[in-house]
Write a structure and sequence with these properties.
CATH superfamily of the largest domain: NAD(P)-binding Rossmann-like Domain
Keywords: Amino-acid biosynthesis, Cytoplasm, NADP, Oxidoreductase, Proline biosynthesis
CATH topology of the largest domain: Rossmann fold
Strand content: 5-15%
Bound molecules: 1,4-dihydronicotinamide adenine dinucleotide, (2S)-3,4-dihydro-2H-pyrrole-2-carboxylic acid
Number of helices: 11
Pathway: Amino-acid biosynthesis; L-proline biosynthesis; L-proline from L-glutamate 5-semialdehyde: step 1/1
Organism: Fictibacillus arsenicus
CATH architecture of the largest domain: 3-Layer(aba) Sandwich
Protein name: Pyrroline-5-carboxylate reductase
Number of domains: 2
GO cellular component, one term: cytoplasm
Shape: elongated
Length: about 280
């Protein structure tokens, strides 16, 4: 069970913090069981200690003896270096490795560490912070059912979870990993135009965010598809039809598709760029 495992994050940036916050504040994981290790930023470590009461150390100080679950949360370009450094201290039948790194594959990680350790890719998003992530998980070749159960339990602690194949990871990243940014971008624009048209910013933000939240909840709770729900908003010759016409004329639908495709493509490119060790 997750609550009896010691978890070490390698990398202490935005994604590690979002997961730490969700694990402690939403899933009730004891902060004593969580350690975050970063490269050299001492202020960042103090910030995490003060905010969450976890242990935060430099990567060189991190002991893997008392760690059960290792969560890789550095940038994809740091994957190889960090894995090479971890390698001597990794133990079969002890450590489980979860990687949140966009693009980086489980065969690459398995190849570098050279041991039969369970490696699982998890792709959360920053809504983990409030327990509202949707996290994709895909298993490497040495993963047993109990390891997958653990990854699922951890992912459920920070939101919802979908088990996917590794091939689906790129598009999952394009939709869910990067997805919050598209919706923030949409909200930024709605807020700006609302302010230009006479609402104060705080009220505009609240209105736009609640509208997105309500629409999202409708999709999750009703039996209608998004297209059917859209039709129910759209009165003939009404305001919504006018708004949707403008979206179409300005390439709104195509722009959204292009955003997801470009992000998924970038995930593939990251793999090509940073997987220098040849994968068999
Ligand atoms: N930010 C997001 O929304 C999401 C990010 N991810 C993935 O999470 C990973 C981290 O992303 P962010 O947190 O946004 O980046 P970030 O730049 O905020 O954090 C990276 C962390 O890695 C640490 N680091 C760098 N080199 C290190 C080393 N040699 N040893 C130990 N720590 C080292 C840095 O000190 C920093 O704490 C990336 O691989 C990204 O693809 C995945 C899903 C969503
Ligand atoms: O922008 C990125 O590369 C990371 C992965 C998914 C969200 N943030």
């Amino acid at each position: 069970m997750l609550k009896y495992r010691n978890i070490s994050f390698i990398g202490a940036g935005s994604m590690a913090e979002a997961m730490i916050s969700g694990l402690i504040n939403k899933a009730g994981i004891s902060p004593e069981r969580i350690t975050a290790a970063n490269h050299s930023n001492v202020e960042r470590r103090s910030e995490l200690i003060n905010k969450y009461d976890i242990q935060a150390v430099s990567f060189n100080e991190l002991s893997l003896k008392n760690t059960d679950v290792i969560i890789l949360a550095v940038k994809p370009k740091q994957a190889e270096e960090v894995l090479q450094q971890l390698k001597p201290n990794l133990q079969d039948h002890h450590h489980v490795i979860l990687s949140v790194l966009a693009g980086i594959s489980t065969p690459f990680i398995e190849e570098i560490i050279g041991k039969h350790l369970p490696v699982i890719r998890v792709m959360p998003n920053t809504s983990s912070m409030i327990g509202e992530s949707i996290t994709g998980i895909s298993a490497g070749k040495f993963v047993k059912n109990e390891d997958l159960d653990l990854a699922q339990e951890l992912s459920k602690a920070i939101g919802k979870v979908k088990i996917i194949s590794e091939k689906q990871m790129d598009v999952f990243t394009g939709i869910a990993g990067s997805g919050p940014a598209y919706f923030y971008y949409l909200l930024e624009h709605m807020e700006d135009v609302a302010v230009e048209n006479g609402l104060d910013r705080e009220m505009a933000r609240d209105i736009a965010a609640q509208t997105l939240y309500g629409a999202s909840k409708m999709v999750m709770e009703s039996d209608d598809s998004p297209a059917e729900l859209r039709k129910k908003v759209t009165s003939p010759n009404g305001t919504t039809a006018a708004g949707l016409d403008a979206l179409d004329e300005n390439g709104g639908g195509k722009a959204i598709e292009a955003a997801v495709e470009n992000a998924a493509e970038r995930s593939k490119t990251l793999r090509k760029e940073f997987e220098k060790v040849p994968v068999l």
